[in-house]
From TrEMBL, chain A:
GO terms for cellular component: plasma membrane. Residues 124-151 form a coiled coil. It comes from Terrilactibacillus tamarindi. CDD domains: ABC_Mj1267_LivG_branched. This is ATP-binding cassette domain-containing protein. The keyword Transport applies.
TrEMBL record, chain B:
The keyword Protein transport does not apply. GO terms for molecular function: branched-chain amino acid transmembrane transporter activity. The lineage of its organism: Bacteria, Bacillati, Bacillota, Bacilli, Bacillales. The chain crosses the membrane at residues 7-25, 31-51, 58-75, 81-103, 110-128, 159-179, 209-232, 244-271, 283-305. This is Branched-chain amino acid ABC transporter permease.
C-alpha cells in the first residue's frame, strides 16, 4: 500500500504568462485511490493532461518506476502504464462497443506486416487473446448486451463504462479518471463508484479528479486539493474536510464525508 | 474468420470470372475503357487509404501516379531496364516519396494538409513539364516497352485487362487484410479522434506516415501500369484535374469502404463515356450529377445503399419476430466495410 508508483516533482504549466499549474509535488502510492479536487479553473484537467502526456510541463518532471520523464509523448506515457478517461467522453462513434474497447489493446497487438498479411498462427492467437480480454472487460463492466451496439445508442453512463473499459484494456498501472460522474444521476454515480472500487481491487492505482465532493471523499484513500494551479492541501479525506485552506478556498463550509 | 473466408472466396471467384471474361471482349473501345477504369480504381483505392481510412486529405495524388509512370518511362526508355524491374523501382520510389511528403505534413490537418498535398502535386507536374532532359517536358516519353508476363504479351488489351483485374483483386485483398488488422484499427482511431489514439498508445505520426507510404506506393503502382499500357506518357495526365477527379471518385462512391471507390470508379467511367453523346453539354451535365450526389448523398453512394438495404432487412426481421427482445447488431464490423 505504501509503495510509491509515481512521483510528481515540481510540475508547472505556463500558458502565455498564466500558471495553470504551479510547482506541484506529490507521491502516488501503489493501489490507492488518489482524489484530486479543486474549484473550477484550479488546474485539475491540465494536471491530468501533464500526467497523460497530452500537455508538456513548462517545468518539473515525473518519476515512474525508475524512469525520470520531463517531456514525453502521450503514446509513450500509455506504454509506461498510464491510461485515462476524459471529462467529455471520447469514444469512436463509427465503431461498436467491442471495437472501441479493442482500440485499447493496440499496444499488445501483433503489428508485423508478414503476420498481418498472412494471418499467421501467432497473429490469430494474439487477436483471439485481445478479443477475449475485451469480452472479459465487457462482462466485468456489465455491458454484455451492448457488445455490438453503436456508441450513439448508449446512455451517458454506458459510454463512461465503455471509456473506462477501453482504458483498462491498455492494462494500466495507473488509471486517470477525469470527472467520471459528470452528467450522471445519483444512482449512476453510485454504480460508477462501485466500479472504481472494483478497479482498485484488481490492483490498479486510480487518480480520480471529481467535482462530486461526497463521492471523492468516500472513495479516496488520499486527496490532493488544487486551487489556482497550486496544491493547497494533501491528506486523508478526514484531514482534508477539516483543512482550513480547503474550506476557505473551495468548500465554503465543513464536509460530512 | 467466416467473414474473412467469405471475402477471400468472393474475391477469388470475381478475379477468375473477370479474367476469363476479359479474354472474350472483342470490342477494343470497351477494352480500353475497362483497362483505364481498372487503373483508376487502383488509384482510387490508394487515395481511399489516406482519405477514407486515415482521414488525411490528399489533393496531390496525381503526383504519385505521375512519379510511378515516369519512373517506368525513364528507366525503361533511357536505361533499357526491363518493365517489371522498373515497376518494382517505381512502386518503391513512389512509397519513398509518400514517406518524404508525410514527414513534414503529418502534423498538418484539414485545409493546411490539403494545401500542402496540392503543392506536392503541382511541384511534381512542374518537374515533369520542365525537366526536359529527363522527362521530355510537355512532349512526354514514348515507346515504353509493353510488358510480357511469362511469354504472354500484355500489349493485347484482353491479356492486359486480365492481368490488371488480377492485380486489382490482389490489392483489394491486401487492403482488406490491412484494415481488418490492428493497423486498420489504429488508422480508424486516428481518423475519428487523435486524442483517443494518443492515450491508447498509438504512435499517431508513425501510422500517418505508414498510410502516406502505402498510399504513395499503390498510386505509383497504378502509374506504372498506366505507362505499361499506354506506352506513352505526358505531364497533362498527371495534373491537378487528375488529383481532383480521383478524390471526387472516392467521395462519390463512399470513402472509408473498399466497395465505395470501386463503385465510384465504375459509375464515373460509365458516366464519362455515356456523356460523350452530349458534346459540349457533357461537362455541364457531369458537374450537375456530381453536385447532386454530393449534396443529397454526402456519405457516398455505396454506404447510402448499404444502409438502405440493412434497414429494409432489419425491419423485415423485426416484423417476422414481433416478440423478440434482441436488437439487431447493426454495429458489428460497421467500420472498414
Amino acid at each position: 500500500m505504501n509503495e510509491q508508483i509515481m512521483k510528481v516533482n515540481n510540475i508547472s504549466v505556463n500558458f502565455g504568462g498564466l500558471w495553470a499549474v504551479k510547482s506541484i509535488d506529490m507521491d502516488v502510492k501503489k493501489n490507492e485511490i488518489l482524489g484530486v479536487m479543486g474549484p473550477n479553473g484550479a488546474g485539475k484537467s491540465t494536471f491530468l493532461n501533464v500526467l497523460s502526456g497530452l500537455q508538456q510541463p513548462s517545468e518539473g518532471y515525473l518519476v515512474i518506476g525508475t524512469q525520470k520523464i520531463s517531456q514525453s509523448k502521450p503514446w509513450n506515457m500509455a506504454k509506461l502504464g498510464l491510461s485515462r478517461s476524459f471529462q467529455t467522453v471520447r469514444l469512436l462513434p463509427e465503431l461498436n462497443v467491442l471495437d472501441n474497447i479493442l482500440i485499447g489493446g493496440h499496444m499488445d497487438a501483433e503489428k508485423q506486416a508478414w503476420d498481418i498479411l498472412f494471418r499467421t498462427k501467432k497473429y490469430r492467437q494474439r487477436e483471439k487473446e485481445l478479443i477475449s480480454r475485451a469480452e472479459n472487460l465487457i462482462e466485468t463492466l456489465e455491458l454484455k448486451d451492448k457488445k455490438y451496439e453503436k456508441i450513439s445508442k448508449l446512455s451517458t453512463e454506458e459510454r463512461r463504462r465503455v471509456e473506462i473499459a477501453r482504458s483498462l484494456m491498455t492494462q494500466p498501472n495507473i488509471l486517470l479518471l477525469d470527472e467520471p460522474c459528470a452528467g450522471l444521476s445519483p444512482q449512476e454515480t453510485e454504480e460508477i463508484s462501485k466500479l472504481i472500487l472494483k478497479i482498485k481491487e484488481q490492483g490498479v492505482t486510480v487518480i480520480l479528479v471529481e467535482h462530486n465532493v461526497k463521492m471523492i471523499m468516500s472513495l479516496s484513500d488520499r486527496i490532493v486539493v488544487l486551487d489556482h494551479g497550486q496544491k493547497i492541501a494533501e491528506g486523508t479525506p478526514d484531514e482534508i474536510a477539516k483543512h482550513e485552506d480547503v474550506i476557505k478556498a473551495y468548500l465554503g463550509g465543513s464536509v460530512n464525508a | 474468420m467466416t467473414k474473412t473466408r467469405l471475402f477471400y472466396t468472393a474475391i477469388t471467384i470475381l478475379c477468375i470470372v473477370c479474367s476469363i471474361a476479359s479474354l472474350y471482349i472483342q470490342n477494343l473501345y470497351l477494352l480500353r475503357v475497362f483497362i483505364l477504369a481498372a487503373i483508376t480504381a487502383i488509384l482510387a483505392l490508394s487515395v481511399n487509404i489516406l482519405v477514407g481510412y486515415t482521414g488525411q486529405i490528399s489533393l496531390g495524388h496525381a503526383g504519385f501516379f505521375g512519379i510511378g509512370a515516369y519512373m517506368v518511362g525513364i528507366l525503361n526508355v533511357n536505361y533499357h531496364i526491363s518493365f517489371w524491374l522498373c515497376m518494382v523501382i517505381a512502386v518503391l520510389f513512389s512509397g519513398l516519396m509518400g514517406l518524404i511528403l508525410g514527414l513534414p505534413t503529418t502534423k498538418l490537418k484539414g485545409h493546411f494538409l490539403g494545401i500542402a498535398t496540392l503543392g506536392f502535386g503541382v511541384i511534381v507536374n512542374g518537374v515533369l513539364n520542365n525537366w526536359m532532359q529527363v522527362t521530355g517536358g510537355p512532349q512526354g516519353i514514348r515507346d515504353i516497352e509493353s510488358p510480357t508476363l511469362f511469354t504472354i504479351p500484355l500489349e493485347y488489351g484482353n491479356f492486359f485487362l486480365g492481368f490488371i483485374v488480377a492485380c486489382l483483386s490482389l490489392l483489394v485483398l491486401v487492403i482488406y487484410l490491412l484494415i481488418k488488422s490492428p493497423i486498420g484499427r489504429a488508422w480508424s482511431c486516428l481518423k475519428q479522434d487523435e486524442i483517443t489514439a494518443y492515450v491508447t498508445g498509438i504512435h499517431v505520426y508513425r501510422y500517418k506516415l505508414l498510410a502516406f507510404t502505402i498510399s504513395g506506393s499503390i498510386a505509383g503502382f497504378a502509374g506504372s501500369l498506366f505507362a505499361g499500357y499506354m506506352t506513352f506518357i505526358s505531364p497533362d495526365t498527371f495534373d491537378l484535374n487528375q488529383s481532383i477527379s480521383i478524390i471526387t471518385t472516392v467521395i462519390l462512391g463512399g470513402s472509408g469502404t473498399i466497395a465505395g471507390p470501386l463503385l465510384g470508379t465504375a459509375l464515373l467511367a460509365f458516366l464519362n463515356e455515356w456523356l460523350r453523346n452530349f458534346d459540349e453539354l457533357r461537362l455541364v451535365i457531369y458537374g450537375i450529377i456530381l453536385v447532386a450526389v454530393i449534396v443529397f448523398i454526402p456519405e457516398g453512394i455505396y454506404p447510402f445503399f448499404k444502409n438502405k438495404v440493412i434497414s429494409i432487412f432489419s425491419k423485415r426481421k423485426k416484423a417476422s419476430q414481433p416478440n423478440t427482445s434482441i436488437e439487431p447488431h447493426a454495429g458489428k464490423d460497421a467500420v472498414n466495410e
